[in-house]
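Let us work through a complete example step by step.
Step 1: write down the sequence.
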Amino acid sequence: MRRILTTFAALATLSLSGCATQQRSDTLTTTLNAYASTVRWGDFNAAQAFVDPKLRETHPVSALEMSRYQQYKVSGYDEGKGPTPHGDVEVTQDVQINLVNVNTQAERTITDHQTWHYDAEGKHWWLVSGLPDISRQ
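Step 2: predict the structure and record it as tokens.
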């Protein structure tokens, strides 16, 4: 009887951890899709909401940086191979973003190296690498 209860407890634990992993994975998919949609629309003000609050507090986006974002329209957002997990609570992905300068109509492509971290307490994925750096040529 004791062996049956121990086995049952182990299976229950595995089942619950499997549910947690699936929920974390589903939350990641939802978060990455929402962020991609926000950036595709060029709404970098709204994209800031995906950035880790601690990072927003310590490194706020300046008015100059925000005005730089307004100089561009996003014409493409390609996730390539998608996110790569690094343990249970961190993923990275490299995204190609095509930008068109609204003043010159010149298009260029940047690579955004994203790092996402899972906050287990808040059950939320946060972008810890910040908004894409569009100042690089």
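Step 3: interpret the result. Strands lie at 72-78, 84-85, 90-101, 107-119, 124-127.
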